[in-house]
Amino acid sequence: MATSVFLIGATCLALLSSQGSAADPNNKSGVAFRKPQLDLASSRAQSAAPSADSAADALSAPPITIPNKTSQSDTEDLSEKRQTLQGEVRYAKAKLEAAQKQFALQTAAGDLEKAEHLDQEVKDWQARYSSAKAQLDEVEKQLTEVSQGKASAASTADEVVVPGENLEVFVNEDPSFNGIYQVRRGGYIIMPQIGRIAVAGKSLSAAEAAVKRALQSSQLHSASVMIERKQGADIENGPLIYLSGEFRNPGQWHIPTGITPTLVNVILSSGGVSDKADLTRVRVMRIAANKSVVEEVNVAKILEGGGLTSDITLGEGDVITVPAGPANLVYVTGNVAHQGSFPLKQGERVSAYAAILQNGGFARFADQKSVYVLRALPDGTKAKLPVDISAIKRGQRPDVQLQSNDILVVPEKWFSW
Fold first, then answer.
1. If residue 241 lies in a helix (H) or strand (E), which one and from where to where?
2. How far apart are CA 1 and CA 184, in angstroms?
3. Residues spanned by CATH 3.10.560.10 within the chain?
4. Half-sphere exposure of residue 172: CA atoms within 13 angstroms, side-chain side
5. How far is CA 261 from CA 227, 244, 250, 267, in A?
6. What DSSP letter does each residue of 49-98 carry, written as one string?
7. What is the third-level CATH fold of 160-237?
8. How far is residue 101's CA from residue 52's CA, in Å, rounded to a whole number?
9. CB 187 within 8 A of CB 198
10. Fewest beta carbons less than 10 Å away: which of 222, 287, 350, 366?
11. Is 239-325 in CATH node 3.90.79.10?
């Protein structure tokens, strides 16, 4: 009898040692099981698809240390740890699923002792899987932070405006300010009628705000400004003069090498001005002693040969503005066949009677004796000039020569029946 007891006890101890089960605080059998150690390297060598005998494997593994803070230089280390943890997660998950299957089979078979043992093994694999998954999530988070840090730094560097690049400016309220502006070595752009605007070292949004403030301070009541980078060599390098207003080709004019430009030379070389241009009041704006200085020049007089000595020399960054002149129109209204206006060219002479005939002549009830001309005076008032067309046709009175912006009125007779 004693020999039988001894053999049964030895057999139980051998079985427990080979199965390697862990101590279970819920074990009511009173038997303390020993948990053997499992090397992580040997666990990677095993197949990810467990067999039914995998419940005998040990469950503990040395923890993987994860740094709390990372820098860009840690990216490679974190990537390596991520790869290691991904393998650990896959292995632990496979072991967990295998243990769960064995536990279900033994429970269904009614083997309570094996089921109790496998229940603890499931818990241990679950703990190991959760721990590895948590460490993997932390590594993934740190890698994301490093990646975002690099992207943010690159984005900030790309966004800052630097000297030498080209900016395309859009102003919704006044397209005449639209154009491509080069950031000069001093860190500024030069806009027509405004002058220098510091933009270097600013983000695009800050540069937009700077241009908006400059426009609203002197040119526009409200300005909506958008700035885009213009990639590549969209404009030539070299000194520039800026043209605005009634130029045929407004924008930037490049000063040729070895040439000293003058105002008349630039106007002619740039393609000239539009028909609306008023060359008697051309303005040149330049920066002197950090202040904007504006000079008005009568270019029309210079072109007529009466003021060549008044032509001025221009330099880099100067801004030329050619304003629009009077409309040069004559208006005909009242009892005429066709009311409207017609342009009066410079030097052209048109009389009141001729203007009426150009507009189809008199209407049926026109009062030819009471025709008059409204003419604007320098003080802003209007003068009424009587024109008796009946007397003019009989040669008793001279006709009135019309001027730009005159209004010729043909009234109706008091009694028209």
1. strand 240-245
2. 107
3. 239-325, 329-410
4. 7
5. 30, 17, 17, 10
6. S--GGGGGS----PPPP--SS--GGGHHHHHHHHHHHHHHHHHHHHHHHH
7. wza like fold (3.30.1950)
8. 8
9. yes
10. 222
11. no
The stretch 357-384 carries a mean pLDDT of: 88
User: Phi first, then psi: what are they for 224, rounded to 5°?
Assistant: -110, 115
Q: Give me the numbers of helices (H) and strands (E) for the chain, helices first please.
A: 9, 15
| Residue listed under structure tokens 């003019």 | 392
Host H or E run for residue 302: helix 299-303
CA 304/CA 22 separation, integer angstroms: 110
Q: How, if at all, do strands 240-245 and 319-322 pair?
A: parallel
Q: What amino acid is encoded at 395 in this protein?
A: G
Convert the pLDDT of each residue in 166-201 to its tens digit: 888 999 888 888 888 888 877 889 888 888 899 988
Asked if pLDDT for residue 136 goes beyond 70, the answer is: yes
**pTM assigned to the model:** 0.35
Distance from C-alpha of 47 to C-alpha of 60, rounded to nearest angstrom: 18
Q: Can you identify the CATH homologous superfamily of domain 329-410?
A: Outer membrane lipoprotein wza domain like (3.10.560.10)
Where does residue 274 fall: left (phi above 0), alpha (psi -120 to 50 degrees), or beta otherwise?
A: beta
The DSSP 8-state label assigned to residue 390 in this structure reads H
- DSSP for residue 248: S
* 3-state DSSP assignment of residue 276: coil
Which whole-number Å values give the CA distances from 166 to 181, 199, 200, 203, 233, in the listed order? 6, 11, 11, 14, 8
Q: How far is CA 224 from CA 139, 283, 370, in A?
A: 46, 26, 52
> Is the backbone of residue 174 left (phi > 0), alpha (psi -120 to 50) or beta?
beta
**Model pLDDT, residue 355:** 93
Biggest alpha carbon–alpha carbon distance for the chain: 164
123 to each of 23, 31, 32, 55, 126, how far by Cα in Å? 12, 19, 17, 12, 5
What's the token pair of residue 30? 């009173």
What residues does CATH 3.30.1950.10 cover in the chain? 160-237
**Residue 178: which residues within 8 A CB-CB, separation 6 or more?**
168, 169, 170, 171
Q: Which pair of structure tokens corresponds to residue 300? A: 């029309």
